[in-house]
Amino acid sequence: MLEIIHSGLHTSIQDLGRLHYRNVGVPVAGVMDEYHAKLVNQLLGNDENSAVMEMTLQGATVEFHEATQMVICGADLSPKLNHQAIRLNVPVTVKKGDVLQFGKRLYGVRAYLAVKHGFQTENILKSRSFYDGITPKARVEKGDFIPYQTNSNPVKASANIALQRALFTDTEITVYEGPEFNYLSKTQQEKLFNTTFTIGLNNRMAYQLEEILENDCPSIITSAVLPGTIQLTPSGKLIILMKDCQTTGGYPRILQLDQKSIFKLAQKHTRDAIIFKKLSIL
């Protein structure tokens, strides 16, 4: 068991999500930054879909009640084990009673903690991902106990993993045309790809952008959306849907992020700048 001493800002258990229930209105959920979530499991020899702990901006404080190995990847939130700094992207052996805590955020937004064999929370609709309304809660709370399998056999550390800095620093977000892209005039399309946008309010459901794109598009009937869909609201605001988004929406879907750009956006914060680059479908 892992005990939550301090929950952090928004900490939850996630795997790769509920991939086969969108037809009945169940959101995908799952990790926001799939690249680092898969990496953290890979470094422990886990299945890539093993459940991990996702921490946003501020890390949790946790106590390990059984021996295991852990790895932390993604954002650098200054992790410490028993008050001693530890490295990212390297397996670390922990003993019963060890305490993991975090400090100052140095870069990135979301950090991922994995333990050997993954966290063993309740599996609902073939996923352990927290989502309010599907699981009992959307985030961990102080006093929670998160189960995992005891493991005292050390994992051999791999060669140093090179930090993919572009996933944290690159402002370019690559996109495909959405189903309603051609509702935009040529002038609007040019503005879309020649404007530096600023991230506004954001969470696991969606990222709002501050700048306005005039919207004179015809209305659409409610249609399917998925993580990475960019909707243009009647006010001209752009909304980028993320992992906890709904399965349908009624705003024009003008762009669609590719997978890598979803990971990059998940590591960006309020007031960060982004620009869109259009990809071609061969």
From TrEMBL:
<dbReference type="Pfam" id="PF02626">
    <property type="entry name" value="CT_A_B"/>
</dbReference>
<keyword id="KW-0067">ATP-binding</keyword>
<keyword id="KW-0378">Hydrolase</keyword>
<dbReference type="InterPro" id="IPR029000">
    <property type="entry name" value="Cyclophilin-like_dom_sf"/>
</dbReference>
<keyword id="KW-0547">Nucleotide-binding</keyword>
<dbReference type="GO" id="GO:0016787">
    <property type="term" value="F:hydrolase activity"/>
</dbReference>
<dbReference type="InterPro" id="IPR003778">
    <property type="entry name" value="CT_A_B"/>
</dbReference>
<feature type="domain" description="Carboxyltransferase">
    <location>
        <begin position="23"/>
        <end position="282"/>
    </location>
</feature>
<protein>
    <submittedName>
        <fullName>Biotin-dependent carboxylase-like uncharacterized protein</fullName>
    </submittedName>
</protein>
<dbReference type="InterPro" id="IPR052708">
    <property type="entry name" value="PxpC"/>
</dbReference>
<dbReference type="GO" id="GO:0005524">
    <property type="term" value="F:ATP binding"/>
</dbReference>
